[in-house]
Amino acid sequence: MRVVSLAVHPVKSTAIRPVEKASVTRAGLAGDRDWMVVNDFGELISAREFPPLFSVVADNAATGLAQVALKLSAPGIEPLTVDLPHDDEECSVRMFTRPPMTARAAGAQADAWLDRALGTRGFHLVWCSNPTARQLNPEFSRPDDHAAFQDGYPVTLLSTASVARLQDWVTEHAVERGEDAATIGSDRFRSNILIDGVPEAFAEDGWSGVRIAEVDFRVAKRVDRCVMTTIDPQTYRTAKEPIRTLAQHRRSGGKTWMAVALIPDSEGEISLGDEVIPHT
Fold first, then answer.
1. Per-residue pLDDT reduced to its tens digit, 240-260
2. CA pair distance 134, 95, nearest whole angstrom
3. Residue 236: pLDDT band by 50, 70, 90 thresholds?
4. What are the Cα distances from residue 125, in Å, to 170, 208, 210, 223?
5. Pair 56, 72: CB distance under 8 Å
6. How many CA atoms lie within 13 A of 263 on its CB side?
7. Under a CB-based contact definition with an 8 Å cutoff, are residues 254 and 243 in contact?
8. Is the pLDDT confidence value at 33 over 80?
9. The three-state (H, E, C) secondary structure of 111-139, written as one string
10. Residue 82 and residue 108: Cα distance in Å, rounded?
């Protein structure tokens, strides 16, 4: 089993940024989801609520741009470089229904750029200044585990075998309904690590952990999926797949499941082609 794709998302819910190697910290892949967009009330604005966020490309040191903290690009507007906020004043932000987190505001210039790029008003860019302050769900984590603005846990992993099996199901059901089959790529799930060579679809569900290069990860839990996976990242159109098919084959506890959440137990560097050794 090998790593075939690595990705970071410097600003949560913006364009996927493929990388050839990544530094793993206890908070996840370095540079992944360190920033996010919120509204006037400090509540997360994700592509689930506002799909055009997918059009924003964010770069940082993790994507090879070492000179600045963050660079934002989008069609029809000049790029913007953003410095780390130096103001010690922190604001309270919230993701979904989870407890509030503290963050630092990027400032008026970044906010104005978002509004121009996206045709909105009242969007604000914030930075996770202290990931160690975030406590994860104690049912699936240890007291010293933490993350930045990732949904629930620092890293997500998915296998090509699972994506292929899901596509087979989608195609089979489309034929039964007399419809054209939707194409469901791994990008719908925005996982950090995609691996190949897994002998059986969804085998990752049964792993207790995994070792990649010299880095050890615990499997915290399976990842429950939302309607964001039904948004085509190129067209922003929303359809019924893959949630409709996942609900037929991968539903339990009132949720649908795809990929697994990982928590790093050590730090180091992982790269494309690295061997993946699962623990069961």
1. 999 999 999 999 999 999 999
2. 12
3. confident
4. 37, 36, 34, 26
5. yes
6. 21
7. no
8. yes
9. HHHHHHHHCCCCCEEEECCCHHHCCCCCC
10. 11
- The encoded tokens of residue 217 equal 């990860």
Cβ-count burial of 233 within 10 angstroms (0-12 exposed, 13-18 middle, 19+ buried)? middle
Cis ω on the peptide bond leading into residue 100 (within 30° of 0)?
A: no
Rounded Cα distance, 200 and 84, in Å? 44
Any residues with CB less than 8 A from the CB of 60 and at least 6 apart, and which? 10, 31, 34, 68, 69, 70, 71
Q: Tell me: the pLDDT tens digits for 175-190? A: 999 999 999 999 999 9
Structure tokens at 120: 């909105």
How would you classify the pairing of strands 35-38 and 77-82? unpaired
Taking alpha carbons only, the member of 82, 132, 134, 129 closest to residue 108 is: 82
Is residue 259 within 8 Å of 161, Cβ to Cβ? Answer: no
Evaluated on CA atoms 158, 63, 95, 229, the torsion sign reads negative
Cite the beta strand spans of 47-189 per DSSP E.
57-59, 70-74, 77-82, 91-93, 101-105, 124-127, 155-159
Domain boundaries, the chain: 27-133, 155-279
64 pLDDT higher than 80:
yes
Q: Which amino acid is at 150?
A: Q
Q: Is residue 88 predicted with pLDDT exceeding 80? A: no
Q: What pLDDT, on the 0 to 100 scale, is given for residue 117?
A: 97
